[in-house]
Amino acid sequence: MLSSTFALAALRWTSRRLHYSSHMQLFANALIAGSLAALIAGGLALVYGVLGVFNLALGQLALTGGYVTWWLHQVLDLPLFPSVIGGLITGALMTWLTFEVFVNPFYKHHRFLPLVTTIAWSMILDGLILLVFEERPRSILPGLKKTFEIFGAHISVEQCVLIALTLIALVVFAYVFHCTPFGRKLRAVVQHDTAALSLGINAPALHRFIFILSGIFAGAGGIFIGIDQNLSPTLAFSLTIKAYAAIIAGGKGNIWGAIICAYLIATLEQLLVGIHWFGVFYVPAGYQQTVALLFIIIFLLCRPSGIFAARARAA
Amino acid sequence: MAFVWHLVILIGTWLPGALTYTMIFGKGKILHFGPLGVSLMTSYATFLTLGATGSYPIAVLTGLGSAIAISAVFAWLSLRLEPDGFGIMSIAVHLSVLSVVLNWSSLTRGALGIPRLPRAPFPASQEGFALVMVVMCIVWVLGMWLLDRSSFGRKIAALAEHEWHSAALGVSRARVHFLAFMVGALGALFGTLPYHHYIGLLHPNDYQFPGLIFFVMLVVAGKPGSVFGVTISTILLVLLKELLRFVPLPPDILGPVRLILFGVILFAAVWYRRDTLFPKQRTV
Q1: What is the C-alpha separation between A116 and A108, in angstroms, rounded?
Q2: For testing the chain A interface, which of B270, B275, B281, B282 should be mutated: the one with the most A CBs within 10 Å?
């Protein structure tokens, strides 16, 4: 009798521990996916805040950074750090090209034109990625990764480094954006670029800079994917959609709102497919991508200004 | 000769959707990216009902009902949202419907699609089918041309140019948008059903994002809002798409080359029409 009670208690303890461990794993996964989405959405929110244009080639630009890093590291056998720098520089150059050819000549005609031109550019980039890097999955660091346990969640060293680097990048960006004269100029352009221009700020150069910065963040996102998982051309569009979901939910042009919502969407994605709902059913993993789409639909319908809508300053 | 009939049929399946899309996106300047979502709903509703009931009239009515329902939702959203918000929303709705189709395998067979669709009740031969498509397209082009020249065409153009002034002159935005999307629903029905009857397969891959880009390209290349321009661009671009199959390249190269080529065509068309695609408001 005593032994069966003890066995039952042990079983309950193990079950609770497993339950706790699986939930912690979900949150760890959300943190990893959220960091990736935050990198891409943060830069994009800045672009939307300044130019008010949608760049639908963003996912492909992110993948370009990742694929170039893979090529430098795996094909040319360069060490990881220079390869990553090469990937980031490529991301920046490709985004600069995007701005000069597919955005700048059009958005002054009409701000919706880049929506169509960047769709065309995304097709061209998709084709080029397929031609150059082929369809099969590519990993920047292939092979089994060493994992360790934190609060019941298994996480690899690379993932920890990626999360830490993302947070450092965001903190540095926050410092530059809020505490430096350059950041003050950036914020002035975000708030009212014409007024900033009359005050002597070179707004067109900052437009270009902000666009390229979004490409560097996107390239970093692509490298993140290549290190943590596998790069595949099919990922591009879902990256773009997730970034836009974060921007719309976070309040258009609100960088911190977009970053918080990127983490929120990633958490909900993990919870949706990872939880045994009402102890009755699991949601199929295929629906995970739908969370971002539902975010877009719900927020555009119920709160088009987003959760953290920025208030316009008035005199 | 069979290949010529095949091309005629394919052009016929693209044309109704392209012409109604040019009415909405080209003439109305409504940033609608969900025409494939409407076709997706229509085709699945029709063929799932056909499989369940075996009755073709009921299946077509169900398909029409679905097309009208989702088009009404799009029309309502276009009235409620900012233009760019509606553009993103229409993509999100399309992809959400696609996601349900792909994941609800017990009903839709997911990524496998629905094979062995029955041929249309008439006609049985490929030539007959092509001739029916030609007649349907002629009727459709004339119908769209008349609609374009009607008071509805003038109203949708006026709304695209200046919404408030048009409203002040008595144009009802809600009515015009609703009618435009209903025409879009008919275009989806008349385009998508013959296509699936012809190939005998309903597959979700036909409704992925590249298909939508092809629609946008047909409208932009053919001159937005122009019935005859879009008819010609549909003929030429569908021919180009099909003839590219004969380029002696391996499939893993031909696919990306086709993507690049169509991307360049779309970009060149937007470049050429950058002043007319979303024109600036006229001033006195």
Answers
A1: 14
A2: B270
B256–A131 C-beta distance less than 8 A: yes
DSSP B55: -
The confidence band for A14, taking pLDDT boundaries of 50, 70 and 90, is low
List the one residue out of B196, B240, B234 whose CA is nearest residue B215: B234
Strands, E assignment, A157-206 = none
CATH number at residue A148: 1.10.3470
Residue A1 lies in a domain: no
Contact yes or no for A297 and B96 at CB 8 A: yes
Residue A6 lies in a domain: no
Backbone phi, then psi, for A139, in 5-degree steps?
A: -120, 135
The Cα–Cα gap between B94 and A98 comes to: 26
pLDDT in tens, A270-293: 888 777 777 777 777 778 878 888
First to last CA, chain B: 56
Whether A7 is covered by a domain: the verdict is no
- Statement: the pTM of the whole predicted model exceeds 0.90: no
Q: Which domain holds residue A109?
A: 23-302
Q: What is the pLDDT of residues A141-191, one digit of tens each?
A: 887 777 877 777 788 888 888 889 888 988 888 888 888 898 888 888 877
Task: Give the confidence band of B281 by pLDDT, cuts at 50, 70, 90.
Answer: low
Shortest Cα–Cα distance, B119 to chain A (Å): 32
Task: Work out the average pLDDT over B77-90.
Answer: 85
Inter-residue contact B219 to B110 (CB < 8 Å)? no
Structural contact between residues B208 and A238, judged by C-beta atoms closer than 8 angstroms: no
Q: How far apart are CA A313 and CA B137, in angstroms?
A: 55
Using the Cβ of B253 and the Cβ atoms of chain A, whether some distance falls under 8 Å is answered with: yes
Q: Which of A111, A284, A294 sits opposite B96 (nearest CB)?
A: A294
How far is the C-alpha of B7 from the C-alpha of B9, rounded, in Å?
Answer: 5
Query: For residue A49, what are the contacts with CB-CB under 8 A and spacing of at least 6?
Result: A190, A252, A253, A254, A255
Which residues are CB-neighbours of B57 under 8 A, at least 6 positions away?
Answer: none
Min distance A133 CA to chain B CA atoms (Å) = 11
The ipTM, to two decimals, is 0.82
pLDDT band of residue A16 (cuts 50, 70, 90) is low
**Does any domain span residue A307?**
no
Q: Rounded to a whole number, what is the distance in Å from the CA of A285 to chain B's nearest CA?
A: 9
The DSSP result for A201-265, as a single string, is --HHHHHHHHHHHHHHHHHHHHHHHHHHS-B-TTHHHHHHHHHHHHHHHH-TT-HHHHHHHHHHH
Domain count, chain A: 1
B79 to chain A, any CB pair closer than 8 A? The answer is: no
The minimum CA-CA distance between B181 and chain A, rounded to whole Å, is 19
B73 near A CB under 8 A? no
The contact set of A with B (CB < 8 A) is 54, 102, 105-106, 109-113, 115-117, 119-124, 126-128, 130-131, 134-135, 237, 241, 244, 248, 284, 286-287, 289-290, 293-294, 296-297, 300-301, 304
User: What confidence tens digit (pLDDT) does each residue in A55-92 have?
Assistant: 889 899 999 999 999 999 999 999 999 999 999 999 99
Place of tokens 């694929």: A67
